[in-house]
Amino acid sequence: MSAPSEAEHARASTVRRTTLAAAIGNTVENYDYAVYGLVATVLAKNFFPNSTPGVALLSTFAVFAAAFVIRPLGGLLLGPLADRIGRKPTLVVTLIGMAVVSTLIGLLPTAATIGIAAPILLVVLRMGQGLAAGGEYGTAIIYAAEFAPENRKGEMASRVQMGSLAGLLIGAVIVVSLTLSLGPEAMQAWGWRVPFLLALPLGAIGFYLRSRLGETPEFVEVQEVAQDRPPVGRRLWRGVLLIGVAATHAVGFYLAFTYVQNLIIQLKFSLVTATVVIGVALAVGIGLVLAGGRVSDRIGRRPALLIATAVIVVASYPLMAGLTSSTNPWVLGIFAVLLAAAPSFYTGIAPITYIELFPVHARGTGVSLAFNIAVAVFGGSVLYVTQWLVQTTGDNRAGAFVLIGSAALSGLTALALPTVLTPRVRRPTATATPVGGLRLSRDPRGGRP
């Protein structure tokens, strides 16, 4: 084999390993979040037993939102850390934090045992999850993209987003399996703890993978080459653009894969049926996420975002109406898959868009802080707001309007994006430190002039 072929093979192997390591932590993060949403009706009875069913579920969704409220603080603390000490050590810290806190939720006494202290501790632990998650997603997509070739950055970043859906899918499979094997009573009594406790071995696998990898070549170059770096504050308008783009990412993700599961239960289907339907939607969504990243590499970020948001605006209401009027599980599943399709495709495009809004030296701070503000505002409130709208209006199709509103906002934001987001690559002024046996050269500023 010729030397160039060996080098190309080594680079491809490095990209695969780094993408897997970045995605596995995101899988753990979203597994932890998914488990909470998937067993929300069970948690409501254990932590808010004296409330009416509707109020108890609203209270459980309010605790769900608590993790999102704290995420901007996590982004503020951990994002700059990724810019100062590196992407890899930050990813290790966030992964450990997520796994440990989720395990503690699995060990938490219920209200029947310690009274009001139970929901208080649940809120505290959920906020701990949010703190760790505040630095996880942004750093993970940056890590994967900074290893990728220029013409595949969208695809590589979307693979980390695939880890998000994989985490939800793993959670769904585990919840269904436990419910079928244990039965509703045992699931209510103690079975709900098992999915949270499984976060620890999943985190251990992610820690092993991440601890064996090096730093990204783009970050190494920026650290080695002296330059004047404009303050992050000068790019605040880019953070505003990111928040607008992330609206549909956050709303679509949690509405399609968490709220809809609870909606199906409220339509008098069983927990098993609801979770199986969401599992199928997730399996299809994983492929659509990758498709979104690849399409963004081919036609550009802005056109891909505009196509996805247009489909969401047009299709959401009829699909939600079909889902809520379904009496057959197979028909229900078809509508759930179709409702999640365009949001899944969109979340494959969004990650690389976030990254390319900021230069290398400010990516950790800019992406983590702005994205987590968006997730706190839109993702953290979507379950509560949608459930409140349904109960207030008596219309179980109200979730469609939440999804349409977010898509309209993101579509307008996409129109304001630069026509071409991909950074222009200058002639290298320095040679990067070898990474994985490769010597890579890039613009040390890692962004637009």
Automatic annotation (TrEMBL):
Lineage, broadest ranks: Bacteria, Bacillati, Actinomycetota, Actinomycetes, Pseudonocardiales
Biased composition, class Basic and acidic residues, residue ranges: 440-449
Coiled-coil ranges per UniProt: none
Transmembrane segments: 55-79, 91-124, 130-148, 160-183, 189-209, 236-257, 269-292, 304-324, 330-355, 367-386, 398-417
Protein name according to UniProt: MFS transporter
Primary localization class, coarse: membrane
Organism: Pseudonocardia yuanmonensis
Domain of life the protein comes from: Bacteria
Similarity section: Belongs to the major facilitator superfamily. Metabolite:H+ Symporter (MHS) family (TC 2.A.1.6) family.
InterPro entries: H+-coupled_symporters, MFS, MFS_dom, MFS_trans_sf, Sugar_transporter_CS
Localization: Cell membrane
Keyword Cell membrane belongs to the record: yes
Domain (Major facilitator superfamily (MFS) profile) ranges: 18-423
PROSITE patterns: MFS, SUGAR_TRANSPORT_1
Annotated region described as Disordered, given as residue ranges: 430-449
Entry annotated with the keyword Membrane: yes
PANTHER family in the cross-refs: ALPHA-KETOGLUTARATE PERMEASE (PTHR43528:SF1)
